[in-house]
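ok trying this again, last paste got cut off
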Amino acid sequence: MSTIPPAREAAADRPLLTRIVSASMAGTVVEWYDFFLYATASTIVFNKILLPKMGNEYDAIIAAFITYAVGFIARPLGGVIFGQIGDRFGRKQTLQATIMLIGAATVLMGCLPSYQQIGAWAPVLLVTLRFIQGLALGGEWGGAVLLVAEHAPDGQRAFWASWPQAAVPLGNVLATLVLWIMTSVLAPSEFLAWGWRVAFWLSAIVALVGYYIRTKITDAPVFQEAKAEMDQEKSSGYGVLEVLRRYPRGVLVGMGLRFAENILYYLVVTFSIVYLGTALKVNTAEILGMIAIAHLCHFAVIPLVGRLADRVGRRPVYLAGAILGGTWGLWAFPAFGTRNTWIILLTIIVGLLFHALMYSGQPAIMAEMFPTRMRYSGVSIAYQVTSIVAGSLAPVLATEWLKSTGSWWPTAVYLAFAGAVTFVAALALRETRGISLRSLDSVDAAAPGAAASDGGRAAVVVVPQTRKEARR
């Protein structure tokens, strides 16, 4: 491990940083609105409209979740493609491309004919568009969080970089509220006939607004410096293969950190809809209303946890999230069984609060694992590959277990196991609170052999001792 004095940089221009955060959040809200709109529609629309009839309602939901999982499978590929582009040409241009791609795919979903009208072509087209959604989203997250993380002061990186994370529940709130309004004001037959399509068509408006906002931003100086250096030194590597060769440990630790967080989130916001609506027969509009309220609470707490990670460190906050998140299923499903609206709402909120302990610090943690020239690729792979074996499978497995056993116990044990995996990864995490991103680049440039030979373990750890130093 190398130790380098922290770079003495002037505090970031706050108006500029606020503008960067706003642009990043605007696009992220759009992208996740589209992605989560599909998630919610999978449980209440697609299994009835765009897929063939199944033997029972659980099989229909599982089939819808399988098409939903296609988006997760596409995300690592998107991370590879757009990670390469983002590391070579810039974060801004990449984010402009991803927002238009996902917006177009979502609008086209709202235009799909039903299974009764075109038969098997309906699910084929649905899966194709879902793949495009996932491809775009795979490139979106890394660029959005790095745009902020690379502009942020060293001692406040977790706080500022948590704001794009907070945009994720805002996107989900928006998607949930639109569907909640449509299910509340329309008769069930009207909603299934055309009401759900309106939510998908609205994506065109929000995508164009997000694209425009992103035209007003620039890449961070630390990236511009790294790009200039790569342009001069043609042999300087970047992209996925270089990350896996030089920093495999960072990728593996990042994937472990993501495992329980991703599973917990999709059990709370997706499988809860299935369990409450199908097993407990809670009204759909009521469920969507509770999910929306819980996401507003999630949005409010994410930056607070980010600030906490800047004050006490990344590791202790993440360890707490892994422990608490792993226990959620053991008491959440009995709480759902009370059928008491307030208890159910509180249970969902607490699940998302546990999630925030892991989720808020991820952008800063992962940005601090990789040098600038390959950071986009590194964070995208660590973040997106895990989604295939975590978030994509969690609702499918939980629904299958509920159908075959009639019990929530397998799901609770599954989540507890995931919490243990992430706890171990958090223990392996090196504390990087207050580190300078330029110091990572210096180590990467000065000791390439050492970084490669020890599996990417060469790191710089600089922990500010005072608040004044932390603000630099």
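PB: full thing came through this time. The radius of gyration is 22 Å.
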